[in-house]
Amino acid sequence: MKTKIKNFFNILCKSLELFFFIIVVMYAFSAIIFKGQMVKVFGFDFAIVKTSSMFPTIKKYDFVIITKNTQNLSVNDIVVFFDDSHKNLIVHRVVEIVEENDHIFFITKGDNNQFRDAGSRTENQIYAKYSFKIPYLGFIITFLKSPIGLCALLLNFITIACIIMIWYFENNISIKKL
Known about the structure:
Low-confidence stretches: none
Shape: elongated
Largest sheet: 8 strands, antiparallel
Distance between the termini: 38 Å
Structural class: alpha+beta
Number of helices: 3
CATH superfamily of the largest domain: Umud Fragment, subunit A
Helix content: 40-55%
Number of strands: 8
Radius of gyration: 22 Å
Order of helices and strands: HEEEEEEEEHH
CATH class of the largest domain: Mainly Beta
CATH topology of the largest domain: Umud Fragment, subunit A
Strand order of the largest sheet: 1-2-3-8-4-5-6-7
């Protein structure tokens, strides 16, 4: 009975690892293809933090998983919004909520920044809400998006394919000798 439970948990862990690996690979390839754009995989949005403005909560190159549900935002929520040029995503904390003329404005600030962000954001300007992070995964993906990273990835695939082919041929030869 214990071995069946152990086998079940092993299969469950391997399945979760495979699922996570598939998500990361899909994100990496879609991020390479759609450079600079927000990428959605399995209904989740992902972003790579490019600055240390949220240190120590979120570090540079952390891979953050975000949700589009921006309703009921409150002070201390971490939100994601575009900068004024609409080219870069910013991940900062809501430090104050101001209600003015029946409109709600969110004042944001990076945890590691000395001052609040310039201006305020409306709920429509908030792109998403932070859910959780995978530390430093963004560093790996950023590296893989570079020319050197792509070459390293290709070289790894070729090496693994050669190892598998050598192993396969050696096993077939040893079987024929018997």
